[in-house]
Amino acid sequence: MPAHESTNALNTIAIDDPDDPRIAAYRSLRENRLPKPTDDAPHGLFIAEGEKVVRRFAEGASRFELASVLLAESRFERDRPWLAGLPDGTPIYLAGRPVMDAIVGFPIHRGVLAAGLRMPKPPIADLLAEAQTVLVLEGLANHDNVGGIFRVAAALCQKPLVLLDPTSCDPLYRKAIRVSMGHALAVPFARLPDWPNGLAELASAGFETLALGLAGDATPMHGWRPSSDRVAWLLGAEGPGLSDAALAAADAVVRIDMEPGVDSLNVVTAAAIALHGTRSALQRP
Length: 285
Known about the structure:
Elements lengths: L11 E3 L30 E5 L1 H8 L6 E8 L3 H8 L8 E4 L1 H8 L7 E6 L6 H7 L2 E6 L4 H14 L3 E5 L9 H6 L9 E3 L8 H5 L3 E5 L6 E2 L10 E6 L7 H6 L2 E4 L11 H17 L2
Parallel strand pairs: 1-4, 3-4, 6-7, 6-11, 7-8, 9-11, 9-12, 10-12
Antiparallel strand pairs: 2-5, 3-5
Helix pairs in contact: 5-9
């Protein structure tokens, strides 16, 4: 049956049919599924999940435009205050839990989703001109790790930028956004399609490019000081680490000292240590 609508200042729209075409972007969600481009969203959509993440839209803390919200109707009165901060006219689709679960294909415990509009990316040179610290990711296919990188970048960097090689996962996957606590919507990012040749743009923009690695001749983190106040860190996936080509593109390789018998750290942990070390080194007289 067609959905019935109610009209108020918040533009709420009651949904009682899981097949309603207006909520097609939310249908049959998977962690690595991105809705296809449409006439209304030529660059495509992405789905954000959870109150804290969706509130970033309401508070204007996202670099993306909000297309709509899908909310469990039982949450509406509680969430009305922050929903009032959404852009005027934003559709707020309200559904009962059974209908909402049928739409997305599994129980949605958080009860709040948003569809955001992907935007055309500015040239990488423009992003580099505005950045202070860059994190370059190679081969990071794990959503949790990519989301975690954005969270530590937001916490520990001034003017951060994240660049991804062609094989790293999309930061706008639903789980990556959720793990980032919404910071994937605020921290600028772009993909370097010409890998690893595109790393040359870092030097052209005045960045000291440093690779995190475990080589015995790498500079220990505790003895390292940056030669520039603009630093780019190259981070590879756990296990394989950075490729030889990426290591060759770096100005230096820096090693995090660890106790014997421990061969590596989670990449998010390693990134946090490197960024904290950068902050401390730049603040030392």
